[in-house]
Amino acid sequence: MDVTIKLFKYKNAGVREYWIVFPDDKGIIVYDFEKGFEPKMYSFNDKVPVGIWNGECEVDFKEIYSQIEFMYDLQ
Fold first, then answer.
1. Distances 14 to 10, 20, 70 between C-alpha atoms, Å
2. For 14-47, what is each residue's pLDDT tens digit?
């Protein structure tokens, strides 16, 4: 649902940027609708630039993952 229905609803509603996080795959897909419809893919080892802030802000998924990594060991 997030990858299809919500994606198109958000795009049509004027959302400028849409991130989908895949915890099991440790991946992130970022759609920057202002620059087109091609997504960029990242992993939990990356710092992901926030496009709507011209990349001046980044989300460090490696840092976030280091704080929750123990949860993956419980599975």
1. 6, 17, 37
2. 999 999 999 989 999 999 998 888 999 999 999 9
Mean pLDDT of 54-65: 91
The whole-angstrom separation of Cα 26 and Cα 10 is 23
Residue-wise burial string across 32-52, b where 16 or more C-beta atoms lie within 10 A, e elsewhere: bbeeeeebeebebebebbebe
DSSP 8-state class, residue 50 = -
| Contact of 28 with 20, CB cutoff 8 Å | yes
Q: How far apart are CA 37 and CA 41, in angstroms?
A: 13
What distance in Å separates the CA atoms of residue 6 and residue 67, rounded to the nearest whole number? 28
Longest dimension (CA), the chain: 39
